[in-house]
Amino acid sequence: MFSAYPGYFLGRPKVDRIIARVFNDDNVLYASVLADEVDLLMDNSLKRELTFELGEQWERTGAGKVYLGYGPMRFAVANLNPELQIEPAFYDRRVRQALMHAIDRAVLTATVHRGHRELLANSLLPPSHSLYETVKDGYARYTYDPARARALLADAGWVAGPDGALIDATGRRFNPAPLWTSPGNEVEIGAIADYWKQVGVVVEQRISSLVQRRDQKFLSSFPLETTAAGTWDGVFQRVESRELAVAPTYAGRNKSHYQNPQVDAAIDRFRQSLDAPAQARAVKEVSDIMVEDLPLMPLFYNPTVPAAPKRIKALEDFRGGVAGGIGGTFSRNAHEWDIVL
Fold this sequence. Notes:
Layout: E1 2-3, E2 17-18, H1 26-34, H2 48-61, E3 64-66, E4 69-78, H3 93-101, H4 105-112, H5 132-135, H6 146-155, E5 159-160, E6 166-167, E7 177-181, H7 186-197, E8 203-207, H8 216-219, E9 224-228, H9 261-272, H10 276-293, E10 297-304, E11 307-309, E12 312-313, E13 338-339
Parallel strand pairs: 7-8, 7-9
Antiparallel strand pairs: 1-2, 3-11, 4-9, 4-10, 5-6, 12-13
Helix pairs in contact: 3-6, 9-10
């Protein structure tokens, strides 16, 4: 429980007490919100299906609002570590480009996020980032185009064999690589596997356990996976060399072992510069290389969805970003929250 502090420098908070409650069951939390027993949902308190359902219900009744913002980018990624990758074809960026063209990312986004196609990731940074316009639509070139995907694969030396699976000039079959993901993303990788199968790339789907997801060495051993990067420009950590996940801790964020000196140098310039135009140029350079090289294959942005019923005056200045981003945390102006009777 949090109590109002009368001496707060911006003025005494309007609400005397705020009680934080923990729910271990999404359905119980959802029922409590509908019963007016919960006054505020911060960020992703509910699983996304129930949050979107709540938003649709509140939009019809006017009982409240679910705010939609951009969280971490979700993407598919191939491991470029020769000790772990079982199909060397993934080292060829033409193959990675083909895999992007083979996925209808707009439909996938709408399927996973209950019709919210605006969450499609077509840029290195989300629309809520101050430098978004610099990299806007960088990945838009990767439209759903199976014919283009097959042409890129053929250019890389892979054509469909008698059974539709890819083979190279020697007759070697494209190795069916496992596609990993975390629990809750079964629909996502199921759709991706179906899209890739249409162009001859067959993958086995694997859902890692929650225990495995806490093992850094395990998290670094995937051949292919779908995952999410940090918010805002935290995605850079997935491609910079100093973040390589290596023994003994495997703690680095760059678990796919992508290495490019130009990207490292541009990221350094971005972080070290206090000049906005210089930062924009550096970010644009990183984006241009990543769009062409595809060390990460963007799918969509995970939503960030705080919510408030009509009787609560809060979150009205939500800017569509993430907690801790440029706009600060969701509770930064809690002293202005109020109950509307």
